[in-house]
Protein backbone atom coordinates (compact mmCIF):
# COMPACT_ATOMS: atom_id res chain seq x y z
CA UNK A 1 0.00 0.00 0.00
CA UNK A 2 1.55 3.26 -1.11
CA UNK A 3 0.43 6.89 -1.24
CA UNK A 4 3.02 8.70 -3.35
CA UNK A 5 3.15 12.48 -3.66
CA UNK A 6 4.61 14.71 -6.34
CA UNK A 7 4.01 18.30 -7.39
CA UNK A 8 3.44 21.21 -5.00
CA UNK A 9 4.63 20.64 -1.43
CA UNK A 10 1.83 22.65 0.18
CA UNK A 11 -0.75 20.28 -1.35
CA UNK A 12 1.00 16.94 -0.86
CA UNK A 13 4.13 17.13 1.26
CA UNK A 14 4.21 13.53 2.47
CA UNK A 15 4.31 10.01 1.03
CA UNK A 16 3.14 6.96 2.99
CA UNK A 17 3.80 3.24 2.62
CA UNK A 18 2.16 0.51 4.70
CA UNK A 19 2.52 -3.28 4.88
CA UNK A 20 1.53 -6.33 6.95
CA UNK A 21 -2.11 -5.36 7.73
CA UNK A 22 -3.62 -6.51 11.04
CA UNK A 23 -7.15 -5.54 9.97
CA UNK A 24 -8.86 -5.81 6.57
CA UNK A 25 -12.46 -4.81 5.85
CA UNK A 26 -13.99 -5.86 2.52
CA UNK A 27 -17.56 -5.64 1.25
CA UNK A 28 -19.64 -6.69 -1.74
CA UNK A 29 -23.42 -6.55 -2.02
CA UNK A 30 -24.98 -7.35 1.38
CA UNK A 31 -21.82 -9.08 2.66
CA UNK A 32 -19.10 -7.43 4.76
CA UNK A 33 -15.95 -9.40 5.67
CA UNK A 34 -13.77 -8.32 8.60
CA UNK A 35 -10.39 -10.04 9.05
CA UNK A 36 -8.74 -9.10 12.34
CA UNK A 37 -5.45 -10.67 13.48
CA UNK A 38 -6.13 -13.84 11.50
CA UNK A 39 -9.78 -14.21 12.55
CA UNK A 40 -12.52 -13.60 9.98
CA UNK A 41 -16.10 -12.52 10.64
CA UNK A 42 -18.84 -12.08 8.05
CA UNK A 43 -21.72 -9.63 8.48
CA UNK A 44 -24.97 -9.14 6.59
CA UNK A 45 -25.35 -5.50 7.53
CA UNK A 46 -25.01 -1.94 6.36
CA UNK A 47 -21.48 -1.42 5.07
CA UNK A 48 -20.99 1.98 6.62
CA UNK A 49 -22.36 0.88 9.98
CA UNK A 50 -19.92 -2.04 10.15
CA UNK A 51 -17.05 0.24 9.13
CA UNK A 52 -18.02 2.81 11.76
CA UNK A 53 -18.32 0.20 14.52
CA UNK A 54 -14.98 -1.42 13.70
CA UNK A 55 -13.22 1.93 13.55
CA UNK A 56 -14.85 2.93 16.82
CA UNK A 57 -13.33 -0.13 18.52
CA UNK A 58 -9.79 0.87 17.51
CA UNK A 59 -7.55 3.02 19.67
CA UNK A 60 -5.09 4.39 17.14
CA UNK A 61 -2.83 7.33 17.95
CA UNK A 62 -3.46 10.62 16.23
CA UNK A 63 -1.02 12.68 14.16
CA UNK A 64 2.49 13.04 15.56
CA UNK A 65 4.12 16.45 16.09
CA UNK A 66 6.75 15.21 13.61
CA UNK A 67 4.47 13.97 10.84
CA UNK A 68 0.72 13.88 10.06
CA UNK A 69 0.10 10.12 10.14
CA UNK A 70 0.86 7.82 13.07
CA UNK A 71 -1.47 4.93 12.13
CA UNK A 72 -4.54 4.33 10.03
CA UNK A 73 -6.06 2.61 7.04
CA UNK A 74 -5.54 2.54 3.30
CA UNK A 75 -8.50 1.77 1.09
CA UNK A 76 -11.14 2.76 -1.41
CA UNK A 77 -14.90 3.28 -1.64
CA UNK A 78 -16.42 2.30 -4.99
CA UNK A 79 -19.10 4.35 -6.69
CA UNK A 80 -21.50 1.40 -6.39
CA UNK A 81 -21.74 2.03 -2.65
CA UNK A 82 -24.36 4.61 -3.66
CA UNK A 83 -26.84 1.73 -3.70
CA UNK A 84 -26.47 1.46 0.09
CA UNK A 85 -27.31 5.15 0.54
CA UNK A 86 -30.04 5.94 -1.99
CA UNK A 87 -32.46 4.19 -4.30
CA UNK A 88 -30.87 4.86 -7.67
CA UNK A 89 -30.98 2.91 -10.92
CA UNK A 90 -28.09 0.58 -11.68
CA UNK A 91 -27.35 0.35 -15.40
CA UNK A 92 -23.64 -0.52 -15.43
CA UNK A 93 -22.68 -4.17 -15.85
CA UNK A 94 -20.60 -5.59 -12.99
CA UNK A 95 -18.19 -7.37 -15.33
CA UNK A 96 -15.17 -7.14 -12.99
CA UNK A 97 -16.78 -8.37 -9.77
CA UNK A 98 -14.52 -6.24 -7.58
CA UNK A 99 -15.36 -5.35 -3.96
CA UNK A 100 -17.30 -2.17 -3.31
CA UNK A 101 -15.05 -1.31 -0.38
CA UNK A 102 -11.65 -2.41 0.89
CA UNK A 103 -9.79 -1.00 3.91
CA UNK A 104 -6.48 -2.35 5.22
CA UNK A 105 -4.77 -1.19 8.43
CA UNK A 106 -1.03 -1.92 8.33
CA UNK A 107 1.08 -2.87 11.34
CA UNK A 108 3.95 -0.87 9.94
CA UNK A 109 4.23 2.32 7.94
CA UNK A 110 6.97 4.40 6.43
CA UNK A 111 6.34 8.16 6.30
CA UNK A 112 8.39 10.43 4.03
CA UNK A 113 8.51 14.19 4.58
CA UNK A 114 9.34 15.44 1.08
CA UNK A 115 10.18 18.95 2.18
CA UNK A 116 12.57 18.00 4.99
CA UNK A 117 13.89 14.85 3.29
CA UNK A 118 13.17 12.74 6.39
CA UNK A 119 11.70 9.28 6.94
CA UNK A 120 9.86 7.84 9.95
CA UNK A 121 9.00 4.18 10.53
CA UNK A 122 5.76 3.69 12.49
CA UNK A 123 4.74 0.44 14.25
CA UNK A 124 1.35 -0.51 15.68
CA UNK A 125 1.77 -2.66 18.81
CA UNK A 126 -1.33 -4.60 19.93
CA UNK A 127 -2.38 -5.56 23.43
CA UNK A 128 -4.67 -8.50 24.25
CA UNK A 129 -7.56 -8.36 26.74
CA UNK A 130 -5.11 -8.87 29.64
CA UNK A 131 -2.94 -5.95 28.59
CA UNK A 132 -0.14 -8.15 27.28
CA UNK A 133 1.64 -6.98 24.19
CA UNK A 134 1.41 -9.20 21.17
CA UNK A 135 4.47 -10.02 19.14
CA UNK A 136 5.79 -7.06 17.24
CA UNK A 137 5.43 -6.94 13.49
CA UNK A 138 8.42 -8.07 11.45
CA UNK A 139 10.99 -5.54 10.41
CA UNK A 140 10.66 -3.80 7.09
CA UNK A 141 11.64 -6.27 4.36
CA UNK A 142 14.52 -5.30 2.09
CA UNK A 143 13.43 -3.57 -1.09
CA UNK A 144 13.35 -5.94 -4.03
CA UNK A 145 14.36 -4.06 -7.16
CA UNK A 146 13.83 -7.11 -9.36
CA UNK A 147 10.05 -7.17 -9.35
CA UNK A 148 9.91 -7.94 -13.03
CA UNK A 149 8.54 -6.11 -16.03
CA UNK A 150 5.13 -5.59 -17.59
CA UNK A 151 3.52 -5.49 -21.00
CA UNK A 152 0.44 -3.56 -22.08
CA UNK A 153 -1.63 -3.94 -25.22
CA UNK A 154 -3.63 -1.37 -27.20
CA UNK A 155 -6.29 0.73 -25.49
CA UNK A 156 -9.96 0.00 -26.14
CA UNK A 157 -12.83 2.32 -25.20
CA UNK A 158 -16.34 1.21 -24.31
CA UNK A 159 -17.51 3.98 -26.70
CA UNK A 160 -17.17 4.22 -30.45
CA UNK A 161 -16.53 7.74 -31.75
CA UNK A 162 -20.06 7.92 -33.15
CA UNK A 163 -21.67 6.70 -29.93
CA UNK A 164 -19.65 9.18 -27.87
CA UNK A 165 -20.70 12.12 -30.07
CA UNK A 166 -24.32 11.01 -29.79
CA UNK A 167 -23.99 10.90 -25.99
CA UNK A 168 -22.57 14.43 -26.00
CA UNK A 169 -25.54 15.61 -28.06
CA UNK A 170 -27.97 14.03 -25.60
CA UNK A 171 -26.20 15.66 -22.65
CA UNK A 172 -26.39 19.07 -24.30
CA UNK A 173 -30.10 18.57 -24.87
CA UNK A 174 -30.60 17.60 -21.20
CA UNK A 175 -28.84 20.82 -20.20
CA UNK A 176 -30.99 22.91 -22.56
CA UNK A 177 -34.14 21.31 -21.12
CA UNK A 178 -32.99 22.10 -17.58
CA UNK A 179 -32.84 18.44 -16.52
CA UNK A 180 -29.19 18.73 -15.45
CA UNK A 181 -26.55 21.43 -15.27
CA UNK A 182 -23.46 19.23 -15.20
CA UNK A 183 -22.76 15.69 -16.43
CA UNK A 184 -19.62 13.63 -15.94
CA UNK A 185 -19.63 11.82 -19.28
CA UNK A 186 -16.90 9.25 -18.82
CA UNK A 187 -15.64 6.35 -20.84
CA UNK A 188 -13.74 3.30 -19.68
CA UNK A 189 -10.51 2.29 -21.35
CA UNK A 190 -9.23 -1.27 -21.06
CA UNK A 191 -6.12 -2.99 -22.35
CA UNK A 192 -4.41 -6.37 -22.09
CA UNK A 193 -1.84 -6.42 -19.28
CA UNK A 194 0.83 -8.86 -18.16
CA UNK A 195 3.46 -8.46 -15.46
CA UNK A 196 3.86 -6.41 -12.29
CA UNK A 197 1.25 -3.70 -11.71
CA UNK A 198 3.65 -1.95 -9.32
CA UNK A 199 6.12 -1.44 -12.16
CA UNK A 200 3.42 0.21 -14.23
CA UNK A 201 2.58 2.42 -11.24
CA UNK A 202 6.21 3.59 -10.92
CA UNK A 203 6.39 4.25 -14.66
CA UNK A 204 3.27 6.41 -14.57
CA UNK A 205 4.64 8.40 -11.63
CA UNK A 206 7.93 8.96 -13.48
CA UNK A 207 6.00 10.34 -16.47
CA UNK A 208 3.73 12.61 -14.42
CA UNK A 209 4.52 12.98 -10.69
CA UNK A 210 1.12 14.32 -9.61
CA UNK A 211 0.26 14.96 -5.93
CA UNK A 212 -2.08 12.05 -5.18
CA UNK A 213 -0.78 8.76 -6.55
CA UNK A 214 -1.98 5.60 -4.81
CA UNK A 215 -1.14 1.91 -5.17
CA UNK A 216 -3.14 -0.76 -3.33
CA UNK A 217 -2.15 -4.40 -3.66
CA UNK A 218 -5.34 -6.31 -2.87
CA UNK A 219 -3.86 -9.72 -3.78
CA UNK A 220 -6.48 -10.68 -6.39
CA UNK A 221 -6.29 -7.25 -8.01
CA UNK A 222 -4.51 -3.92 -7.69
CA UNK A 223 -5.75 -0.33 -7.63
CA UNK A 224 -3.58 2.32 -9.31
CA UNK A 225 -4.58 5.96 -8.93
CA UNK A 226 -2.77 8.84 -10.64
CA UNK A 227 -4.92 11.71 -9.43
CA UNK A 228 -3.93 15.37 -9.51
CA UNK A 229 -6.98 16.37 -7.49
CA UNK A 230 -7.67 16.42 -3.76
CA UNK A 231 -11.30 15.41 -3.39
CA UNK A 232 -11.54 15.76 0.38
CA UNK A 233 -9.17 16.48 3.26
CA UNK A 234 -10.36 16.13 6.85
CA UNK A 235 -8.44 17.08 9.98
CA UNK A 236 -10.56 17.19 13.13
CA UNK A 237 -13.55 19.40 12.29
CA UNK A 238 -11.80 21.04 9.32
CA UNK A 239 -12.74 20.02 5.76
CA UNK A 240 -11.04 21.06 2.52
CA UNK A 241 -11.65 20.26 -1.14
CA UNK A 242 -9.54 21.38 -4.13
CA UNK A 243 -11.33 20.74 -7.45
CA UNK A 244 -9.53 20.92 -10.79
CA UNK A 245 -10.98 22.13 -14.07
CA UNK A 246 -8.78 22.67 -17.10
CA UNK A 247 -5.54 20.92 -18.04
CA UNK A 248 -2.89 21.29 -20.70
CA UNK A 249 0.04 19.06 -21.71
CA UNK A 250 3.59 19.97 -20.78
CA UNK A 251 5.54 21.64 -23.57
CA UNK A 252 8.60 20.19 -25.23
CA UNK A 253 10.45 23.49 -24.66
CA UNK A 254 10.20 26.28 -22.04
CA UNK A 255 8.60 28.55 -24.65
CA UNK A 256 5.96 25.96 -25.51
CA UNK A 257 5.38 25.34 -21.80
CA UNK A 258 4.78 29.07 -21.26
CA UNK A 259 2.38 29.17 -24.21
CA UNK A 260 0.30 26.33 -22.77
CA UNK A 261 0.28 28.11 -19.42
CA UNK A 262 -1.06 31.36 -20.95
CA UNK A 263 -3.65 29.43 -22.95
CA UNK A 264 -4.97 27.76 -19.81
CA UNK A 265 -4.96 30.92 -17.69
CA UNK A 266 -6.85 32.88 -20.39
CA UNK A 267 -9.39 30.15 -21.23
CA UNK A 268 -12.92 31.43 -20.60
CA UNK A 269 -14.32 27.90 -20.87
CA UNK A 270 -12.00 26.44 -18.23
CA UNK A 271 -12.54 29.45 -15.98
CA UNK A 272 -16.32 29.05 -16.19
CA UNK A 273 -16.11 25.32 -15.44
CA UNK A 274 -13.85 25.98 -12.46
CA UNK A 275 -16.28 28.54 -11.04
CA UNK A 276 -19.15 26.11 -11.51
CA UNK A 277 -17.46 23.22 -9.71
CA UNK A 278 -16.25 25.50 -6.89
CA UNK A 279 -19.82 26.69 -6.37
CA UNK A 280 -21.12 23.12 -6.48
CA UNK A 281 -18.65 21.85 -3.88
CA UNK A 282 -19.17 24.90 -1.70
CA UNK A 283 -22.88 24.06 -1.69
CA UNK A 284 -22.13 20.40 -0.86
CA UNK A 285 -19.88 21.35 2.06
CA UNK A 286 -22.55 23.77 3.25
CA UNK A 287 -24.89 20.81 3.82
CA UNK A 288 -22.60 19.24 6.45
CA UNK A 289 -20.66 22.24 7.83
CA UNK A 290 -21.64 24.93 10.31
CA UNK A 291 -23.42 27.91 8.79
CA UNK A 292 -21.19 30.66 7.36
CA UNK A 293 -17.99 28.64 7.87
CA UNK A 294 -17.48 27.57 4.24
CA UNK A 295 -14.95 29.90 2.59
CA UNK A 296 -13.26 30.00 -0.83
CA UNK A 297 -9.67 30.78 0.11
CA UNK A 298 -8.10 30.18 -3.31
CA UNK A 299 -10.43 30.26 -6.29
CA UNK A 300 -7.88 29.84 -9.07
CA UNK A 301 -4.34 28.55 -9.07
CA UNK A 302 -2.17 26.92 -11.71
CA UNK A 303 -0.21 23.83 -10.69
CA UNK A 304 2.27 21.73 -12.62
Can you characterise this structure?
- The chain has helices spanning 47-57, 161-177, 197-207, 254-265, 268-286; strands at residues 2-4, 14-28, 31-36, 39-44, 74-77, 101-113, 118-123, 150-152, 156-157, 189-190, 193-195, 212-217, 222-227, 230-235, 238-242.
- It folds into 3 domains: 1-147 and 191-228, Anthranilate synthase (4-Layer Sandwich), CATH 3.60.120.10; 155-186; 233-304, no CATH class.
- The radius of gyration is 22 Å and the shape is globular.
- With 304 residues, it is of the alpha+beta class.
- It is 23% helix and 28% strand.
Got a strand count? 15
Strand content: 25-35%
The CATH superfamily label of the largest domain reads Anthranilate synthase
Question: What is the average of the pLDDT values?
Answer: 87
Quaternary structure of the protein: single chain
CATH topology grouping of the largest domain = Anthranilate synthase
- What letter string, H or E per element, gives the SSE order? EEEEHEEEEEHEEHEEEEHH
Biggest β-sheet description: 9 strands, antiparallel
Structural class: alpha+beta
- Indicate the CATH architecture of the largest domain: 4-Layer Sandwich
Amino- and carboxy-terminal Cα gap:
25 Å
Bin the helical content. 10-25%
Amino acid sequence: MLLLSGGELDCAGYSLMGWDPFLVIKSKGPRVEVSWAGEEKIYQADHFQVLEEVLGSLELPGPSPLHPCAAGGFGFLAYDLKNHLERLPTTAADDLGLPEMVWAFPRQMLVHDRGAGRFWQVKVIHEDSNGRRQAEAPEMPPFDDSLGSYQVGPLHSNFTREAYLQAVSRVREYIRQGDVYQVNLSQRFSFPFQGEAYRLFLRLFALNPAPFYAYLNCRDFAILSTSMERFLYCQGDYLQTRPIKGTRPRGETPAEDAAFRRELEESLKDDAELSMIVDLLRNDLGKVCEARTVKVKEHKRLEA
